[in-house]
Structure formats: C-alpha cells, structure tokens
Amino acid sequence: MTEKQGRVFSGARPTGRQHLGNYLGAIKNYVALQADYRCVYCIVDVHALTTIDTTRDLKLNTREMALDWLAAGMDPNESIIFVQSHVLEVMELHTYLSMVTQLGKLTALPTFKEKVRDNPDNVNYGLVGYPVLMSADILLYKADAVPVGTDQIPHIEFAREIVRSFNHRYQTDILVEPHAKVTEIPKVLGIDGERKMSKSLNNHIELAATPEETRKRVMEMVTDPQRIRRSDPGNPDICNVFTLHKIFSSPEEVAEINQDCRKAEIGCVDCKKKLAANLNNNLEPFRLRRFELDKDPDYVRDILLDGAIRARVIASETMRQVRAAIGFFGSGE
Ligand code: SF4
User: Fold this and answer.
1) Is the minimum distance from the CB of 218 to ligand 1 under 6 angstroms?
2) How would you class 253 by CB atoms within 10 Å of its CB: exposed for 0-12, middle for 13-18, buried for 19 or more?
3) Whose CA is nearest to atom 4 of ligand 1?
4) pLDDT averages per 10-residue partition of the chain, 333 residues
5) Is any ligand 1 atom within 6 A of the Cβ of residue 221?
6) Which helix (H) or strand (E) holds 181?
7) Atom of ligand 1 nearest to the CA of 260
8) What's the order of all strands across the beta sheet hosting 80-83?
9) Which residue has the CA at smallest separation from atom 7 of ligand 1?
10) Model pTM?
C-alpha cells in the first residue's frame, strides 16, 4: 500500500439527496482523493444554521446526503466521514480564532456581502463569523490541503491568515497553514441550460432518482435555442445535453452526435433519449448500492458516529495544544 501524502479536509452543507452537479463538482473528487490522502469529510450542519429557516429537514437531509456519499464510493475505511455538530471542539476553536480575527476583514469579504444580499432579513452574527468557523473546521484537523475551485481560494487564504495571527499572538506553531488544492471543478448547468444545477432552482437531476424520473428530467432539458425545427442544424457546443453526453456517453457516440446534430441528422428527442439511457446505465451501480445500504436503518448513523469518534481523537489533541499555547490556567505544557 502506498504511503498517503497528507491530510485533506472538506465540508459540505447537508442538502439532502445529491444531484449530478454535486457529484461532478465534489463527490467524484472526494472519492478520487482517498487513494492519495488521509481524508476528513464533514457534513457541516452547524454552518447550515446560518441561513436555514427551519431545522425540520436537517436530520433527514444529513442522512440522505451521507447515504449518497457512501453509495458513491466515499469509503469510511479510508476516510473519516462525520457530522460537524458531533465534534464540539470546533465551536471552542472557533471562539479562540474569532479573537484573532478583525471584524472589518469579515464584513469586507465578497462572500459576506453576497450572503447579506441573499438573506437581507437574517444577517446574524453567525453569518459574519462563517469564515472563522470554516477555518476552525480545517485547522482543527490540521489539514494540509483543502480541495477547492478557483473561486474559493480566498477562503483558504483567509484561513492561512488566521493561522498566522494565532501563531503570532501566542508565539506558537501549532496551527498549520492549509494549502488550496485547486481542482478543476466543472460547472454543471441545470436542465434549464442556463444556471448552475441546484436543488433550490429545481433544475437538478438527483443521483438517486428512478430511471423513469431521470428520463423525464432529461426530456425536459433545454437544448440549442436556435434549433427550432427538426430540420434545423444544431450547435452541440452550446447545448447542455451534449455537455452531459461528453461525460456519460462513449467517445464514439459523442463523435456521432457531434456530427449528426450539426447536419440535423439527429433530433433532440432522440439525442435526449440516448443521454437518459446512458445516464441511467452509469448510475445503476450507485443506485443498487444505495438501495442495499439503505436497507439497514442504522448503517448511516453508525458510520457517522464512528467517524465522529475518529475525528474527535484528532480534534481533542489539537485543542489540548491550543489551550496550552493560549496559556489557560491548568492547561499543562
Ligand atoms: S441534437 Fe442533441 S446536441 Fe444537438 S441540439 Fe439537440 S439535444 Fe443538443
């Protein structure tokens, strides 16, 4: 077995059943990273509280998301997979980090301004401190690397700044500056062909949907808007159906569609039927596995609780060092 290179941390909000955008944008990469890194994957349910109106679906969404993660190949034997609220040390570290973070920096962040725009009636204290809690997530586990898209690099830079502030303030080196592991994250458009695939926009295709539901969603997909009649030549380069063909269909089929679409030798209905069939074939092993895992009602809970126990081993050691570095009475060292 090859030696793993370091520790990766990543967190995602509990959004329930995952869709193709989640899979192509994150889960696929999470699975691949397991071969080379010691991975810590967290369902960040505390973060979710900053913007959700009700926690009615929180438990269900956490379970459904974890079930999708596990069925997709995130392996609890290779990685630590757990829920943020199960490891309370993160709250404590968040408090200490908040005291080496300037408020002005937080309110100047573009992500904060964006969140204020999206939630004008609920600009809560947690929303301002969101990047501090996110940094605490990463630093608690002393992650060397955090997989991100280019747009998230500033978050990692922010966490690195907090590390420097903390280590400087307490003359220590116990917190580790994480690095952004920049990953090419494909932007997966929804079935509207315009906006990023998202559950809240209802333009998504769920991984765990039935083959028939999947087919229905694919048939609703918006194609090349210039192609009005069957006899009009199309342009696959601007068609989201073709983008998904490139991911889920064979190279031969992709080449054929590319040609036939431009010469109007294939209609959009047939093209979508092919995509739906290939998508369902690709997702079948995932769906079977999900069905099997779901048979045991305690499986997901047990995996997540075990993950929390393993996460806490790392977290409690980090906090022991943090308390000692700060110099609390009775903290040892
Ligand atoms: S034939 Fe296929 S690739 Fe061409 S416009 Fe229609 S759906 Fe898109």
Assistant:
1) no
2) middle
3) 261
4) 85 96 94 96 95 92 98 97 98 98 91 85 89 97 92 91 98 96 86 94 97 98 93 94 96 97 96 98 98 95 98 98 94 70
5) no
6) strand 179-182
7) 1
8) 80-83, 38-43, 7-12, 145-148, 179-182
9) 268
10) 0.94
